[in-house]
Design brief:
With 128 residues, the chain is mostly helical. The protein has a domain at 38-111. Helices cover 79% and strands 0% of the residues. It contains three helices and no strands. The chain is rod-shaped.
């Protein structure tokens, strides 16, 4: 073939298909790595939240216990008893909020790469 002869249409189509498949494969690989990183980040955040809720709950249990003892003391003046009951109520509400957060972090939607990868197989040209 001389330098000014164009390759045949068949040659150009084969080349285009090969290049397109290679780009598509790289795109899937990049999206798979991205999904794996996102999953690892999510698991890290979940672990941090579970650890923090555990530590905060330990402190709240102590606070709730002392507030209950204080509010139940027979010789406690009424103004202090009402303040102890308010503190008890606030600590219990905080504990309920932490329990809700803990439940949320225990939810395990199928975020595995194997479950997400088929959703990432977007045909070339349709990517945002």
């Amino acid at each position: 073939m001389s330098s000014n002869t164009k390759p045949s249409i068949r040659t150009r189509l084969a080349s285009h298909r090969y290049g397109s498949a290679e780009r598509s494969s790289r795109g899937r690989s990049t999206r798979r790595r991205s999904a794996e990183l996102d999953q690892a980040r999510l698991e890290g955040v979940q672990l941090a939240v579970r650890t923090l809720t555990h530590h905060i709950n330990n402190g709240l249990a102590l606070t709730v216990g002392y507030c209950e003892l204080l509010a139940a003391a027979p010789d406690l003046p009424e103004p202090l008893r009402s303040k102890a009951l308010l503190a008890l109520q606030g600590a219990e509400q905080a504990a309920q909020t932490l329990q809700a957060m803990h439940r949320i972090t225990r939810l395990r939607p199928d975020t595995s790469v194997e479950a997400i990868e088929p959703l990432l197989l977007i045909p070339d040209g349709l990517e945002p």
